[in-house]
Every structure is written in C-alpha cells, then in structure tokens.
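Recap slide: Cobalt transporter subunit CbtB, sequence and predicted structure.
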Amino acid sequence: MAQSAVPSAQQSRPAPVRVPVREVVPWAVLAAVLGLVLIYFVGAEQGATSLFGGDWVHEFTHDGRHLLGFPCH
C-alpha cells in the first residue's frame, strides 16, 4: 500500500526546542557591544572623534571603511 503524504494522527512529531532566553541575552548584549565598537573603529576613528593618536587605526581599517561606504579621504 502506498504511504500518504499527509501525516496521520498516529505518527509522533518531535517536540519543539525551547531556547532559554536568560542564557541567550548576555551573548546578544556582548555581540551588540562588539558590533558597536567595530562600527566605531571602522566608521568614526579619525579626526575630532579619534581616541588614539596617529594614523594606525585608520590604516588598519581603511579597506573595511571603503567596503562599508564610509568616506575617509
């Protein structure tokens, strides 16, 4: 006999996986802070907002700055 494409009531479905929010929130906050720091260094670390003297941060992030559309020249 051919098998039906529609599952019958007798077949069991796997239980959905529960994601514990209390375990995910600290990692999400850490990822957001790291992302903001990265965007700062790529997009704003030069000129009047510079935290570090010299051009080494600018030169290190130069290609990423152009890739993300930030002006630098």
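Residues 40 and 49 are 10 Å apart (CA to CA).
The radius of gyration is 25 Å.
(End of recap.)
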